[in-house]
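TOPIC: backbone geometry
CONTENTS: sequence, structure tokens:
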Amino acid sequence: MHHHHRSSGEFKRPIVLLIGSPNVGKSTLFYRLTGKYAWISNYPGTTVDISIGRAHLDGVEVTLVDTPGMGSIYAVTEDEKVSRKMLFETQPDLVVHVVDASNMDRMLPLTLLLIQGGYRVVLAVNAVDELEKLGYRANFEELERRLGIPVVPTIAVRGIGIDELRSAMLQALRGRPKGLQVNLGDELEDAIRRVASVLTADYPVSKRLLAILLLLGDEEALKMVSRAEAEPRRITALLEAVSRQGVRQALEYRLARITDEILKHVLLAVRPAPRPMGRLDEFLVNPVTGTLVLAAVLVALYLFVGVVGAQMVVDFLEEKVFEGAINPALNSFLEERLPYKWLYELVGGDYGIVTLGLRYAFAIILPIVSFFFIAFSIIEDSGYLPRLALLIDRVLKKLGLSGKAVIPLVLGLGCDTMATVTTRILETRREKILATLMLALGIPCSAQLGVVMAMLPGLHALLIWVLVVSGVLMVVAYIASKLVPGETPFFIMELPPLRIPSPRNMAMKTLVRLEWYLKEVIPLFVLASVLIWAGRLTGVFDMVISALAVPVELIGLPRESAVAFLYGFFRRDYGAAGLYDLAMEGLMSYRQILVSVVTITLFVPCIAQFLVMLRERGLKTAVAIFILAVTVAFAVGYIVNQIMILAGV
């Protein structure tokens, strides 16, 4: 597997785009068509992931791109905007529209618009077995005849229909399927003709589809036209003249009518549709029962990722493999062979590239990430994720987030660095920033949480700590949601059928994601250990500790705890462990222990998380979150200290 960052202009032709709503099985089809030869990359200028791979169609090699979920041609979410941008900018040689067999009525309108766009389209109708379970059979030859494009039924998770899809793609690339030109009603057709006739420049999309988008008031289409046309004002004036209220409703109504007319001849009811899943769906999204299921899922996720992955496997790899074997052997080898202490400390010692950087990457983060990717594949492939998002959406809306954000926020309790990476599943840039802020500020990772729990003197202190930290987190998130620009996520999600995940599919997804992880994250850990080495060597650390001693003493803590705060940046639990040592030595009172635990929990993200934030959110956002975390941590520490002094604690 390769990993590149390349712009759309560099894709090797022929280019085939996989387009479709979220949860229709696009990614599974992608892996079936490409094997494992794929890479994940951000689309230029965005934080949205696309997967790119090579597919072989009977000797012809094509570049296959799995685009983010897109449910309609008028893009609403960031994912949809990226998919549509790719449709326009890459000028694909072929578009494979993947639809869910049991939701064809909702998805075929996009197929019709893609055909209007002048694209070569192949329709892949996935999960046809689900349709049969609902008591229907489809006549795909009739669907193909009516749409005028190749139609291939598939069951991606079982690899059924993949060869047929390959040959349909090859035939479509060689000949040009004309596709059904739909009549959208006299008034709309007249307006489309008038707008299309004044478009004189060349466009990557048919003038008919561009005219439809302009009539819908689509911003990207307007920008494209004003850049390309000699007299854009003339077009804006015409649009004002012909635009009517309710163009979108009229268009959707016509497309729905045409789709119904087609499906009337395609779908045959074999037997009355059983709906056992309907009850289960209600159970999962009901506020009471759904919350109980969510609690059980979160406990299972925590046990699997947090206990088995983050404790058992990590403890074994860290204590037995690194601390027990690799580090001592390496250190004694370096002490004998290396005359220079500075060089020894770069590779070995306590903070060397191998003893800290690689130990972190392979012994701590890799097991957690592996277990998480397996768990996430189960949640994703079973169809539970959209139901979970629907359930929790109302609560998170108040913090400017959508239901999907529950996943990274819960994962932060395992490892904040990795949870920051998973904010990619969120749809808007604003949501990604808000979730990243919450993770950086008040969600302790399992390593830090363990030390904090051990350090808190009794249940009363634990309760105060939970209330203060969660209260601060909610207040900061609420204020940030009012200040961070962008709209509140527009939350629409198709509910795919619930299904038992395929082990092969899960293994494939997990391997692809792990390979991506190894290439992306390991360099960050090596960089972190080099920075620590440089800080210790140059004396920068001593200067930082002196500077930190000022706010530390201001919140009523002993001067020695400044060292713990600095190391807390390099690893969250190191910071907590440093404070734990001071508490165990009897150098801190009950009040100081509580103040220190609250402050270190809210204190800056660790260096690995900070470096991931830099890469995911950019320099300005990462530094702003960093400064905010330091400020909030010490401000809250100061307030807690003053309140406890007043209360005579």
Q: What stands out?
A: Residues 287-337 form the longest helix (51 residues).
